[in-house]
């Protein structure tokens, strides 16, 4: 993603035998201790129509009463999507995770979903911009607070048909900016056969519209996700309650006909999704956000000419080269313009001269013809006079 810095010249290392231990073996422990002390940051955004079970699902995923439901009093009561980020500190075995859940209540409650997308995109871009500004400020040279969205869970209603146009538009827009993980909400409302065909039709829709979803679109570590990937788009069930299953209390939903268990792979893909986010790919989600999505945002800013005052020598050289190129181009254009002007004037002059010569030739010819005509007229008059004289002479001879 970044330009190749060129071949590094690293001298080959000679292997040395240590006479006594130096403590090198403790280096991974140093890193472990250090990273244990620094809290991890994970920012997850949840997007989907009201009532699809987003709040319940987040509570289920983190196994606590994390998020309170924000259901508007009436569907029309919110004119726009309200972005509500909430941060929680989760601690497990001395490791803390600062989890920020960004809910988007109001999304999909109106017909025009593109207006619903605007505040979401605005929020995502604002976080990129804040990171970009911090990168450039001396104050944050060390650790920049990361509020960028690392993962976006997009809740698809369990219709069992195909993706709606509105969902396609939203997925297209969002997947260009963040790691989008599509999930099928309320999977307990679909039969196993319906789940299979719905997944197939969703994947077909994503493929047809070239929508890049996480993790399939970012094949950094295929091996790790090859098993998890088979379950995309993940079917999920959320529940705030515990049910009795085979004598054990588990998270699930209880119905007259039986119970559905959240963590049962026969009922939904919850545990695969949790493994993807929490165990296998948390680091990767953060890395891809930085190296791919943030990089794209930054590149977009630079392309639009929003270059900040340069702090890097290569940036300055770039500026100078751009200025020089601009100056050379404008000089070249001026020279070309002058050349064209000269050629045009020369051509007009040549044409004028040839026209003048032609006019002169025509004048001469005219004068020549006039002179010839005058001569002929003179000759005819002389002949006429001669004839008249002869006639007069004849007449006087006859009279005599
Ligand atoms: P949100 O508006 O998307 O945050 O939805 P909520 O989490 O507030 O859930 C709305 C309703 O759906 C609640 O009554 C939940 O109990 C119910 N619900 C949540 N998850 C599921 C699920 O997986 N299956 C079913 N059948 N209902 C669910």
Automatic annotation (TrEMBL):
PROSITE patterns from the UniProt entry: G_SEPTIN
Highest taxon of the lineage: Eukaryota
GO BP term, example: mitotic cytokinesis
GO MF annotation terms: GTP binding
A Pfam family per the record: Septin
Annotated GO CC locations: cleavage apparatus septin structure; septin complex
Coiled coil region boundaries: 345-400
InterPro entries membership: G_SEPTIN_dom, P-loop_NTPase, Septin
Keywords: Cell cycle, Cell division, Coiled coil, GTP-binding, Nucleotide-binding
Septin-type G domain segment(s): 38-304
Family: Belongs to the TRAFAC class TrmE-Era-EngA-EngB-Septin-like GTPase superfamily. Septin GTPase family.
Protein name stated in the entry: Septin-domain-containing protein
